[in-house]
């Protein structure tokens, strides 16, 4: 029976490590060189108010958490300006139906003519909107975002390696528990140390070479993020929005906004 557990552990270890190596190579090969940035579509004051050092607030959100994080940022931004009401039941209600930039207009369009919609439905609608795709395309062109062709990326592959390491430990424990009396359990556990060394060693190399992991940002994109590349956000950008863009809804200090996003499945 222990041989079956051993084969499962080895298969999981080898497959997960191979996927991590493939993801790292694909991300490196698919990252284009920097290209001239097109002129932003937002108004000058609106764009300046949303910029960090070289990145807009929307770009920071996309690089940190993808289009769903960007959707959360625009909803909270409009809620803080009292142009949207986000209820703790997970509903968004329009107060001011005028968007200040293409992403805000896309959010209002996603909410619909009734002026009220569930936040998960708004997120899903924004993911496929042209305004959000333009943000993503601009980042990919600049070499800051991972192209869609190579996602899921390194972050997901690292999580697979971590899961494989846990599976190896559980398989070893099950084999030890089911070993017949008088069996050489030391030799049995020594066999399981092989896939464990493989997974932990690959994880350690990834931690040293590839951290911080991201399914969205390239290494160059990670360096542009405040706190990662040691570049502070612009003073005009509210700190709460920068924190939301970088760390997600769990980092919000406003309990009402946090409840609204979490009750909607954020």
TrEMBL record:
The chain crosses the membrane at residues 160-179, 186-206. Residues 1-26 form the signal peptide. It comes from the Bacteria. Keywords: Membrane, Signal, Transmembrane, Transmembrane helix. This is Membrane protein. It comes from Streptomyces glebosus.
